[in-house]
């Protein structure tokens, strides 16, 4: 078919060249001897422009045909200095355009190639070539920057998104708790198989996002889930599967590590401690899960109660890992990349205990393999050993 298309275009080119010679002869005749059949020359009818016009007419139907039917927003970045051809090829690679040559020639035909600007754009497979071409003309359009911090629970993220975008907090929270199930976003592989009452706790990937000024709650969530899908690699998912865990369980462990660890170097060690406890059937005894169960602390204006008291450790909740063995029912926050990596590849150690290093006071921890070692560390920090 491509060969036939080339032959057709070749014949059109020959015809256009012949017609151009004829028009030039007419024009020459009119210059030398006056009007020739009443025809005058048109400065825009160059052989190149006529060929281009013929090419566009031949592909008119293709211009109105989107590359796909997936309406999920796709972030597309045009780098400074990129040519129309380079952009066209990358649009094809992203599945946004099916014919790079047609896209490039359409830009040329409409005079839009010179208007392409560097910037970040939100495109969709369901957009046609003309629609994408127009969208890429506004590289300097107003945009919103949304930063999602590591270790926040859904309510905190909803508040941050509202503060940075103006999207109502309640609207975003409804979408990430229940509303997402009725959208195409529910088709992400890592979300399939979640418990029927599961929210998106843990899956709102912490990062800085550049979004159009008019971005909706759905647009923000789509970017977060798309980034999670990109960052949680197949190797990480395979590591979880080899342990007999789902991605949901991987994220759950990572969320606890996120709330416990301060130093990146210690995240795999802390993940290893918790894995040792799980394998041996111990209680996790993780303070962050109890903080999650306790919820919002109005007096402190925080979702994370500090310090915890003995009475707090008695709360009857499936998230109280001082009472119930194994992982809690769901993630307790959105973990960052290093915590997710630590949960996928925990350090292989003999440690079962850790506590804040009172000697260094730098966020590090004192680790121990036995209860005796742990109590010694505890006593060195001024604690009363039971």
Secondary structure layout plus pairing:
Blueprint (H helix, E strand, L loop, with lengths): L1 H32 L13 H12 L1 H4 L10 E5 L5 H10 L6 H11 L8 E5 L5 H7 L7 E5 L6 H12 L3 H9 L30 E5 L4 H15 L2 H9 L4 H14 L6 H13 L7 H8 L42 H8 L8 E4 L8 E4 L2 H10 L6
Antiparallel strand pairs: 1-2, 3-4, 5-6
Helix pairs in contact: 1-2, 2-5, 4-5, 7-8, 10-14, 11-12, 11-14, 12-14
Q: Structural class, from helix and strand content?
A: mainly alpha
Report the mean per-residue pLDDT as an integer.
Answer: 87
Shape: elongated
Distance between the termini: 83 Å
Q: Can you give the helix content as a percent range?
A: 40-55%
Order of adjacent strands in the largest pleated sheet: 1-2
E-strand count: 6
Model description:
With 386 residues, this protein is mainly alpha-helical. It has helices at residues 2-33, 47-58, 60-63, 84-93, 100-110, 129-135, 154-165, 169-177, 217-231, 234-242, 247-260, 267-279, 287-294, 337-344, 371-380, and strands spanning 74-78, 119-123, 143-147, 208-212, 353-356, 365-368. It folds into four domains: 2-58; 74-135, Endolytic murein transglycosylase (Dna Ligase, domain 1, 2-Layer Sandwich), CATH 3.30.1490.480; 145-231, no CATH class; 241-349, no CATH class. The longest helix has 32 residues, at 2-33. 31% of the residues are buried.
């Amino acid at each position: 078919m491509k060969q036939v298309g080339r032959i057709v275009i070749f014949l059109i080119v020959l015809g256009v060249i012949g017609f151009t010679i004829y028009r030039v002869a007419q024009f020459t005749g009119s210059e030398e001897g006056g009007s020739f059949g009443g025809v005058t020359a048109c400065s825009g009818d160059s052989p190149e422009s006529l060929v281009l016009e013929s090419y566009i007419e031949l592909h008119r139907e293709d211009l109105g045909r989107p590359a796909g039917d997936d309406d999920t927003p796709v972030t597309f970045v045009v780098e400074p200095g990129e040519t129309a051809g380079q952009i066209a090829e990358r649009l094809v690679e992203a599945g946004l355009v099916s014919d790079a040559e047609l896209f490039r020639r359409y830009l040329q035909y409409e005079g839009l190639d010179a208007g392409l600007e560097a910037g970040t754009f939100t495109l969709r497979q369901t957009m046609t070539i003309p629609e994408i071409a127009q969208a890429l003309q506004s590289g300097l359009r107003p945009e919103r920057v949304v930063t999602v911090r590591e270790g926040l629970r859904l309510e905190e993220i909803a508040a941050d998104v509202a503060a940075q975008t103006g999207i109502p907090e309640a609207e975003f929270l409804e979408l990430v708790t229940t509303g997402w199930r009725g959208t195409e976003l529910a088709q992400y592989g890592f979300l399939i198989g979640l418990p029927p009452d599961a929210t998106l706790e843990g899956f709102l990937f912490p990062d800085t996002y550049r979004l159009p000024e008019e971005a909706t709650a759905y647009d923000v969530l789509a970017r977060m889930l798309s980034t999670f899908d990109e960052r949680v690699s197949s190797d990480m998912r395979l590591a979880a599967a080899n342990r007999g865990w789902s991605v949901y369980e991987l994220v759950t462990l990572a969320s606890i590590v996120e709330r416990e660890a301060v130093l990146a170097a210690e995240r795999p060690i802390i993940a290893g401690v918790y894995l040792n406890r799980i394998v041996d059937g111990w209680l996790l005894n993780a303070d962050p899960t109890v903080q999650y169960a306790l919820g919002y602390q109005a007096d402190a204006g925080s979702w994370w109660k500090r310090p915890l008291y003995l009475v707090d450790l008695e709360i009857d909740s499936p998230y109280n890992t001082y009472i119930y063995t194994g992982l809690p029912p769901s993630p307790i926050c959105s973990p960052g990349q290093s915590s997710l990596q630590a949960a996928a590849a925990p350090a292989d150690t003999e440690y079962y205990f850790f506590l804040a290093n009172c000697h260094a006071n730098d966020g590090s921890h004192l680790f121990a393999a036995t209860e005796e070692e742990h109590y010694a560390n505890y006593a060195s920090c001024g604690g009363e050993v039971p």
